[in-house]
Amino acid sequence: MEALAALADPTRRQIVALLAAGEQGAGELAGQFPVSRPAISRHLRVLREAGLVQVRAEGQRRVYALDPRPLSELDAWLAPYRRLWAQRLDALDTEIARGRRARTQEDGR
Amino acid sequence: MEALAALADPTRRQIVALLAAGEQGAGELAGQFPVSRPAISRHLRVLREAGLVQVRAEGQRRVYALDPRPLSELDAWLAPYRRLWAQRLDALDTEIARGRRARTQEDGR
DNA sequence: GGCTTACTTAACTGTCCAGTTACGCACGTT
DNA sequence: AACGTGCGTAACTGGACAGTTAAGTAAGCC
């Protein structure tokens, strides 16, 4: 779940979204953000360390590609909670207000 | 997507997991962690501000309950990426190595 | 070899955040 | 009214982190 920390930053989420549309070079990516290139470089490093991104050297370019596996982990983490909103979405408020117990679910930390 | 930042902390994820099994008082929660009660109080505040948790005063107790809506938002954010790992999970490495384009997806930031 | 291009790393700064102890407040009990 | 209990908030500290500019490394070109 290290991916969660990586995805907590909006810039990094945007990078992920961009890379979902296809791989890109580092400078190419940096050009689409209002921050400096080193800043993007560091973001890419965080994403890399979280396993969300893979680099490939192509000449002097560094081409970044999305690796969806941590996202799938996140999906798996989220899965057990899914039943909580799957049904009766609009009945939630009243249910919470009434304080009914759910009695399910364990960690997954 | 403010929930992502809230869930980036392991302690808070654990609190969420505990509350998924049923609501609990603040002190009750704090007792299950190695940190001080004020620390948990602050975590609960972050979760509250992220909408992940609801409080209800019951006498002098503060009973916390999970609100799954931000989790469902997170699920929705994750949804467009799902097709990336849905099929050919083992073919991913080679696909990334080959550098094939995906050509889909926008932000969601 | 010497220069440009494409990125990363280093060093520094400001801000945010989790943890602590000390204090404050409201409810309940006697 | 006085006191204990259950929490929250305040004030402070240490560490992590995003941003900057400046320096370093590696590939391509002349």
From TrEMBL, chains A, B:
Cross-referenced Pfam families: HTH_5
PANTHER family referenced in this protein's UniProt entry, alphabetically: TRANSCRIPTIONAL REGULATOR, ARSR FAMILY, TRANSCRIPTIONAL REPRESSOR SDPR
A GO molecular-function annotation: DNA-binding transcription factor activity
Lineage: Bacteria, Bacillati, Actinomycetota, Actinomycetes, Geodermatophilales
Protein name stated in the entry: ArsR family transcriptional regulator
Alphabetically ordered keywords of this record: DNA-binding, Transcription, Transcription regulation
Domain HTH arsR-type: 1-86
Keyword Transcription found: yes
Transcription in keyword set: yes
The organism's place on the tree of life at top rank: Bacteria
